[in-house]
Amino acid sequence: MLDVKQALKQAKINEKATILIEALPYIRKYRHKIVVIKYGGKAIEKDKSLQKSVLTDVALLKAVGIKPILVHGGGPVATKMMEEANLVPKFINGLRVTDEKTMQIVGEAFAKINHEIVSLLAECGEKTIGIIGDEIKLLQVTPISKELGYVGKVTKVNTGILNALINDNYIPVIAPIGVGPKNKRYNINADSVATAIAQELKAEKLTLLTDVDGVYYNNAFVRHLSINDARRLIKQGVITGGMIPKVQACISAVQKGVRKAHLISGIVEHALLLEIFTSRGIGTEIVKKDSSTCPLV
Q1: What CATH code is carried by the domain that includes residue 155?
Q2: Does residue 249 fall inside a structural domain?
Q3: Which among 93, 107, 120, 244 counts the fewest CB atoms within 10 Å?
Q4: Burial 188-212 (b: 16+ CB within 10 A, else e)
Q5: Tens digit of pLDDT for each residue in 162-205?
Q6: What DSSP designation does 293 have?
C-alpha cells in the first residue's frame, strides 16, 4: 500500500499527465501556425520576476511547432529615461509626443529591452533574433500628425523578412520603431505594430499581454466578446482609457483575417500557456461574429 507521501506524489504526476493530455489538441491545432504576441511595457516592468516565465512560455510554443513572433513595448522604461534626462513626457490620446531628443531616448530604451528579451529567450535554447523595426526597413510608416512629431502609423510590413526568419526556426523579437519619410526613425504604438504584423501574415492568433486581466462588464469578467459587443462596450463607456486602443487593435486584427485575438494578463504566471493550451483559457477573447458564447448578445 502506498504511504501518504507516495500517494501525493502519484497524484501530482497524474495531474501533470492530465494537463499534457488537455494540451494535445491545441498543440495539434496551432502547430506550424503563426502566433503574434505583444508583450506590453507595463507588463514587463510591473513584475520583472515573471519576465523569465513569460519568455519560457514563448520558447515552449516554439518547441512544440508553433511559430511565435514577439513584439515588445517599453513605455515605462522610456518615460523613466526621459525623466532622468530632465525631459517631461507628454501624451496625446495615449501616444507619446516624440521630438528628436525623445526619439533618441525611446530608441535606446527599446534597444535595451530588446536585448534583454533576446538574451532570455536564447537561454531557453531557441534561435532568436532581435530587430529594431526601422532596421532593414521592416516597418515602414507615415507620420500621424505634426503635434505628435516622430510618431508613425504602419503602412507596410516587410513580410518577406519575417517569413524567412520563422521558416528558418527563429523567434523574431521586434521593437516598435519604424522608418518614415527621409529615412527618419519613428516611434510606433506596440499594439499597432503587433496588429499590423498579425494582419499581414494572416496569423492564427494575436495575443496582447497587458497588466490587466481583460474586459469586465457589470463587475463580471468577460471571456468571449464579439466585435459588435466590443464596439458597443466602447461606445457605452464600459471599456475606457488604455483598454480602448487594445480592444480596437484586436477588432482590427480579427476583421482583417486573424482568426482570434486575446487580451490577457502578462503578470499571471504562465498566462500564455493557459490561454493557448487549455479549454477554459484566460483573459478576454475577441472573435468576429456574434455567438452563444458571447454573453452580451
Answers
A1: 3.40.1160.10
A2: no
A3: 93
A4: bbbbbbbbbbbbbbebbbbbbbbbb
A5: 999 999 999 999 999 999 999 999 999 999 999 999 999 999 99
A6: T
